[in-house]
Design a protein that fits this description.
The chain has 17 helices and 13 strands. It has helices spanning 28-33, 48-51, 64-69, 112-117, 149-157, 160-164, 187-191, 238-242, 250-253, 256-275, 284-304, 326-331, 333-346, 368-391, 471-485, 492-495, 504-508; strands at residues 42-44, 82-87, 135-140, 142-145, 166-172, 207-208, 232-234, 352-357, 395-401, 405-412, 420-426, 432-438, 450-451. Strand 10 and strand 11 form a beta hairpin. Helix 13 runs parallel beside helix 14. With 521 residues, it is of the alpha/beta class. The longest helix has 24 residues, at 368-391. It folds into two domains: 28-37 and 76-244 and 310-508; 51-72 and 246-304, no CATH class. 57% of the residues are buried.
């Protein structure tokens, strides 16, 4: 006798997942990946003094040479803004979202059984002539499944004109399931990815992201790339961005010019006293310089960044009431977090950033939860692309997750399940990452849209690229592609001397897109 078990109801976007086959969450990472805790956002900065940074004309009594010596000129590196999405828990990327093919590229289709494992039934596979509607090859340049949750979300916040100037690359690469131990996060590498190790850097901050962790995200950063002086500062709401510049009550009591003059005077008094003090510390000169530079930087930041509201996305009509409706912005924390990070990065105040989104461990025995959460992530991705378009800036947007999921073929035919296969378990073999590049001068033709490949059964071919079975080398591949966008791939080996990507000839096969700027923008 056939007994039909009741269908599970999909979970709301912020409802936690209580898996019967998982132990109770105990760590921060486990709480985030199962949706019990949200993903926050971080800003990478050299130090507290580094947050108070800028250059200004009113600072006449402090020489330009001294400001430069103290790092108070704050012009940024002028590199392409970089934002990455860390989908915590093991999200589906390959197949049901971005197409990943065999050795011939995205259009070298997998078997029907392979697509079934990726959550696509036989009547929704992209290579069936009867279901040609399920292939979307042109809209973003990168081929998506036409009913991709990511793509549905991207369309809601990015215009057709923005997407027409976008292209992308998918990377077939497995990673361990559902663990923060994967060194996925490329931010430290992006910060030094350039000529002479000078990579992404903003005029106010180094990097922005989503967790108060060493990496700035849910997943770790490769140990050999971590720079303790560039540890992230947490940013996950507009008030955090607005609060990056705070000199207490001084500017509320005085004009900007008078406030700068006060701090210049404090600098001169402090400098005079410090010359007559023996700190009895071996690094006496360095200590005195730090004290001196603190006042120099404070004066410079007030002069340059005298309107903290300029950092606040809730005050930006292009974002609140523009990309996001006021109701959506005020009602959805993921939108406010995304807006806070993307504004700092794309405006050039920060060099690069991570946005962590929690709850992507969505093998809940139904499909609707994953579909909704993928769409939410897509809306946030599209917002970044659209804001870059509004500001006339290029953008590299990178998406990764710790592990992936697979389906046993059982169909969720509910409206939210969309007739697709239920996600029934973790599966690191089906994992992939991808990046999109917006070019304000028009879509850049990709050299290749797929790096590495899958076998016909939807398992990553681990010999297909250095990134396919090594997360450290996946990060190196992403960094190489970022440098290639600046025409600086030739400096990769000298900048990252312990890399594992082979010689320059081999590296050419790992580059998806050519340069869109020369050095800086």
């Amino acid at each position: 006798m056939f007994i039909r078990r009741p269908r599970k109801k999909p979970l709301a976007n912020h409802e936690p997942m209580r898996h019967a086959d998982h132990a109770r969450p105990r760590t921060r990472r486990e709480f985030i990946s199962q949706g019990f805790s949200i993903g926050a956002a971080t800003v990478m900065a050299p130090s507290l003094m580094g947050l108070l940074a800028g250059s200004g004309s009113a600072n006449a009594d402090i020489s330009d040479a001294l400001k430069e010596q103290c790092g108070a000129t704050f012009q940024g590196a002028g590199k392409i803004p970089f934002v990455c999405f860390d989908l915590a828990g093991g999200a589906n990327i390959a197949g049901s979202n971005v197409l990943v093919g065999k050795s011939g590229g995205q259009m070298d289709f997998l078997s029907t059984a392979g697509y079934n494992k990726l959550g696509l039934p036989g009547d929704m596979v992209p290579n069936d002539p009867a279901s040609v509607a399920f292939l979307n090859e042109e809209e973003t340049g990168l081929a998506f499944h036409a009913d991709s949750g990511f793509l549905r979300g991207i369309r809601q916040t990015a215009t057709a004109n923005t997407l027409a100037a976008t292209n992308g690359v998918v990377i077939a690469a497995r990673s361990e399931n559902d663990t923060g131990n994967n060194p996925h996060n490329p931010m430290y590498g992006i910060a030094k990815a350039g000529m002479n190790g000078m990579g992404a850097n903003g005029s106010l901050l180094g990097l922005v992201g989503s967790q108060s962790s060493t990496s700035g995200g849910n997943s770790m950063a490769p140990m050999n790339l971590i720079d303790p002086q560039n540890r992230p500062t947490k940013i996950d709401r507009p008030s955090d961005a607005n609060g990056l510049i705070d000199v207490g009550d001084l500017t509320s009591l005085l004009s900007t010019e008078d406030a700068v003059a006060v701090m210049e005077s404090i600098h001169r008094i402090s400098d005079a006293k410090m010359r007559n003090v023996d700190t009895k510390i071996a690094t006496d000169d360095e200590v005195k310089k730090l004290v001196q530079c603190g006042y120099v930087k404070s004066a410079a930041v007030v002069d340059t960044f005298n309107n903290p509201a300029a950092l606040d996305p809730s005050k930006d009509a292009n974002i609140r009431g523009g990309i996001f409706s006021e109701a959506d912005f005020d009602g959805e924390r993921e939108f406010r977090k995304t807006a806070s990070v993307m504004k700092l990065v794309i405006d050039g105040l920060a060099g690069a950033g991570t946005i962590t989104m929690g709850g992507y461990d969505y093998h809940t025995g139904e499909r609707g939860t994953g579909e909704r959460r993928d769409e939410m992530a897509g809306r946030c991705m599209g917002a970044c692309l659209e804001y870059a378009a509004i500001m006339g800036k290029p953008l590299m947007l990178y998406v990764f997750s710790d592990g992936s999921v697979s389906s046993n073929g059982r169909i969720d035919d509910s409206p939210e399940g969309r007739g697709k296969g239920e996600w029934t378990g973790d599966n690191q073999q089906t994992a992939a990452s991808f990046y999109l590049v917006y070019n304000p001068n028009g879509r850049t033709e990709a050299i290749r849209k797929q790096i590495g490949y899958m076998r016909y059964d939807a398992s990553v071919e681990t010999a297909s690229s250095p990134a396919a079975n090594n997360v450290n080398q996946l990060v190196q591949t992403v960094i190489l592609n970022y440098m290639a966008l600046h025409g600086e791939e030739g400096s990769f080996a000298s900048t990252f001397m312990d890399h594992g990507l082979g010689n320059a000839t081999f590296q050419e096969a790992l580059i998806g897109m050519p340069g869109i700027v020369s050095g800086t923008i």
